[in-house]
Amino acid sequence: MNEAEELIRIVESRGGRLTIEGSKLVIEPEEAALPLVEELRSHKGEILELLAERPEMPAGVCLIRWEPVEAPVRLSECSTVTDAERFIESSLQQLAAMLEGREWQAGNWGLYGLLERLAMCGCVLALDDPQRAAQ
């Protein structure tokens, strides 16, 4: 893991969310990055490149870890993923549908089933509002 990846991991582990707005690196809440401001500035270009490689997260979801595993990924006795990043992208679309109340477009997967399948492929997520999952 290089220094830019480590900085992203640290900010996210502190509850920070890194996003790209134009050519700007935005971190919310700012407190998650306060002790790392100088390091983040010096690695801004690398951080922006790494963030640009990630898929867009559905509203209401916070990325915890982004480490897509090398395929194949065996999800169960009868399910093997051969392209983890493509699987993650389509599963995020299903998750967005589920969170928007379009369960029929979630591939017959429940909320926690989708989160578990994504985690197995290296994309660990948490809901911004855990109460939403109870609905």
List the helices and strands and how they pair.
Elements: H1 3-13, E1 17-21, E2 24-28, H2 37-42, H3 44-53, E3 61-66, E4 73-76, E5 79-81, H4 84-99, H5 111-120, E6 123-127, H6 130-133
Helix pairs in contact: 1-3, 4-5
Walkthrough of the structure:
The protein has 135 residues and is α+β, with helices and mostly antiparallel strands. The protein has helices at 3-13, 37-42, 44-53, 84-99, 111-120, 130-133; strands spanning 17-21, 24-28, 61-66, 73-76, 79-81, 123-127. Helix 4 runs antiparallel to helix 5 (111-120). The protein is 42% helix and 21% strand. The chain is built from six helices and six strands, in the order αββααβββααβα. The strands form three sheets. Strands 1-2 form a two-stranded antiparallel ribbon. Strands 3-6 form a two-stranded antiparallel sheet. Strands 4-5 form a two-stranded antiparallel sheet.
